[in-house]
Amino acid sequence: MRTGPQARQFFKRGRVFAMLYTEPTGGTAQYDPGNDAYTTVKFGESVYTQIRRFVVVSVRKSFVYAW
Question: What is the pLDDT of residue 34?
């Protein structure tokens, strides 16, 4: 994880980065047990995981806005 000076150098406006992103499948999602992106986690909940790319749009004092 980048902290301090490393984070300030890395997270510049316009930077594109990728990260593993997990979100709950929700009540309307169609669960597909054959798809590796769906996983059952603690308490029997289903989540969808994929690699997402984000672009930094605004740099603040201790965080960034990325879309």
Answer: 76
Please report the pLDDT score of residue 2 as a whole number: 73
Answer yes or no: are the C-beta atoms of 18 and 51 closer than 8 Å. Answer: yes
Residue 12 vs residues 1, 4, 41, 62, 66: alpha-carbon distances, Å: 16, 13, 34, 13, 11
- Low-confidence residues in the chain, pLDDT < 50: none
Q: How far is CA 59 from CA 2, 4, 12, 16, 37, in A?
A: 15, 14, 7, 13, 31
CA distances from 38 to 24, 27, 41 (A): 9, 14, 10
